[in-house]
From TrEMBL:
One GO molecular-function entry: monooxygenase activity
Name assigned to this protein: Tryptophan halogenase
InterPro entries to which the protein is assigned, alphabetical: FAD/NAD-bd_sf (IPR036188), Flavin-dep_Halogenase_NPB (IPR050816), Flavin_halogenase (IPR006905)
Pfam families in UniProt: Trp_halogenase
């Protein structure tokens, strides 16, 4: 028998907690939702770069008006992850329209076209997808479309968010939507086995039918439950972070990655600041050595402003246990590469909310199991993709040598073997062995192929066979990439967008 849920208490008003509250309330009208947080604590400055699905989650699933969001949060539109230096590889992108660079599998004779991609187009600076062009030309996805009488957007992009503006905006929305924000700190959790009976705050006690632990790595509720933790085989466990001011005209619309001695650096531009980070493995470098390397690498940051964050890579194999669901960093985290955390957490909350709504807010074991399977699959799929970045990285320090040997899942091993033997294949199982998947995974086989090929992986299939690329195909490809370049040249950059075009949106 299940329990009908009338009220929910979310512990933690970071981005994950507020997004969970908004998702639960939106699809479950009548549900009483409150968020308890020590709201005066400073908001963590990490978590700024998002992944493709974020726009659909915020503006469709959560019903957040896009124009209002843009005016309040002033995001930068991110078109790719740009690997400016990944252990000495030629610079390459992971653009959000990567799959569009591959031939259309429904066309005739695609073998030649795949070979063309493999041999010439994949790493050519003259053949950039629209997202790659946006980065190369420093543009936003917005352009003026006279026939539509206003600004038009290329949708295959995500956001760089200023965490204070974003979190402040989410709080405002919660209040508008009758979600209570309670300023308190949970100090004691009363349990009976794995069931949460009551929370005791500094000011008062809280009881609810469902508790959501969104307390970040403090894991205030989850820590009281018997939850197995699946630790990922990634040595990275800390990150240094600092910001400096920039002008809108300097914005790079990509998350930019460079290699470090014991990890990697990020650069994430928002509309008024450049956020820099160094994700490192404390097993290979002390914090003070990492700080020295970080300050040396980044221009314009002050050593005194550098903040250190620690994290663990892995997740609780059951996100929902009894009457408590963990979301956000409280549930799990892979690592910052590919910036999947916030988007995956938001998507998890939307999934939780729709599952509950679809079952009349009655929580049964079957609902819990379905949700837990979704969360597990999401983390595993993200780990699969992140792990490949290290497996093919050519760094020479002790950290990079050991990172090359990390565990790859059998799903990834199979895909790599298949690429070597058979080349690209649009018909490879897009679920990568997750047979119960009913929606696209974050990363699909074509993303893996593109990534490893950019990092230098070859395929015996193309090395052993010769394909002729006819002149007509070449001309068509040139025309296509030329028109993408010209189209992007007409786009607004971020300064033009915010100083003029926003009104036409
Ligand atoms: C180094 C690093 C870099 C990252 N970079 C990215 C990135 O680029 N992109 C991305 O998508 N994700 C990134 N993430 C993940 C990011 O942190 C999360 O995705 C998300 O933005 C915030 O997570 P959260 O809300 O779960 O936790 P938090 O932001 O930590 O929020 C937890 C909240 O719980 C509250 N709280 C804690 N204890 C209590 C208590 N006892 N009582 C009441 N309230 C309490 C805190 O006050 C806080 O407000 C990164 C993480 C790390 C560690």
């Amino acid at each position: 028998m299940g329990e009908r849920i009338e009220d929910v208490t979310v512990v933690g008003g970071g981005d994950s907690g507020l997004l969970a509250a908004l998702a639960l309330q939106r699809t479950n009208p009548g549900l009483d939702v409150s968020v308890v947080d020590d709201f005066d604590r400073p908001i963590p400055q990490v978590g700024k770069s998002t992944f493709l699905a974020i726009q659909q989650i915020l503006h469709d699933s959560l019903g957040i008006d896009e124009q209002r969001f843009v005016e309040a949060v002033q995001p930068v539109w991110k078109a790719s992850v740009y690997f400016r230096d990944w252990c000495g590889c030629d610079p390459f992108h992971y653009p959000f329209d990567q799959r569009r660079k591959f031939p259309n599998p429904e066309e005739r004779d695609t073998g030649e076209a795949y070979y063309f991609y493999y041999a010439e187009l994949a790493d050519s600076d003259d053949h950039l997808s629209k997202c790659e062009q946006l980065v190369a030309q420093g543009k936003s996805p917005w352009s003026f479309e006279p026939r539509e009488g206003g600004a038009r957007k290329y949708e295959n992009v995500a956001y760089h968010l200023d965490t204070e503006r974003f979190n402040g905006f989410l709080r405002e929305l919660c209040l508008e939507r009758d979600i209570s924000l309670v300023d308190d700190e949970v100090v004691t959790v009363d349990t009976a086995g794995d069931r949460i009976r009551r929370l005791r705050g500094r000011d008062r006690a809280y009881e609810a039918d469902l508790y959501v632990d969104a307390s970040g790595f403090s894991r205030v509720l989850r820590g009281e439950q018997d939850a197995a933790f699946r630790e990922f085989d990634l040595p990275l466990d800390a990150a240094l972070n600092a910001r400096s001011e920039i002008d809108l005209s300097e914005v790079v619309p990509a998350t930019v990655i460079d290699t470090g001695e014991a990890g990697w650096f990020w650069q994430i531009d928002t509309s008024d600041s450049r956020d820099r980070g160094y994700v490192y493995a404390s097993e290979y470098v002390s914090e003070s050595e990492a700080r020295a390397e970080f300050v040396d690498h980044c221009e314009g940051i002050d050593a005194e402003d550098v903040v250190n964050y620690e994290f663990s890579s892995g997740y609780h194999d059951r996100a929902w246990i009894e009457n408590c669901v963990a979301v956000g960093n409280a549930e799990g985290f892979v690592e910052p590469l590919q910036s999947t955390g916030l988007t995956a957490n938001a998507k998890a909350s939307v999934t939780l909310a729709t599952l509950l709504s679809g079952h009349g807010r009655v929580a049964t074991d079957a609902v819990r199991e379905r949700y837990n399977a979704w969360v597990e699959r999401t983390w595993e799929s993200i780990y699969d993709f992140v792990s490949v970045h290290y497996a093919f990285a050519d760094g020479e320090t002790a950290f990079w040598e050991s990172a090359r040997g990390l565990d790859l899942s059998p799903r990834v091993e199979l895909l790599l073997e298949d690429f070597d033997r058979n080349g690209f294949d649009a018909h490879v199982d897009p679920t990568m062995g997750h047979s119960d998947v009913d929606e696209p995974l974050f990363f699909q086989p074509l993303d893996f192929y593109a990534l490893i090929h950019n990092m230098g992986a070859t395929s015996e299939f193309y090395e052993a066979h010769d394909f002729e690329i006819d002149d007509e195909t070449r001309r068509a490809v040139e025309r296509n990439y030329g028109s993408i370049r010209d189209d992007v040249a007409d786009h607004y950059d971020h300064r033009e967008f915010y100083h003029g075009a926003l009104g036409q949106h």
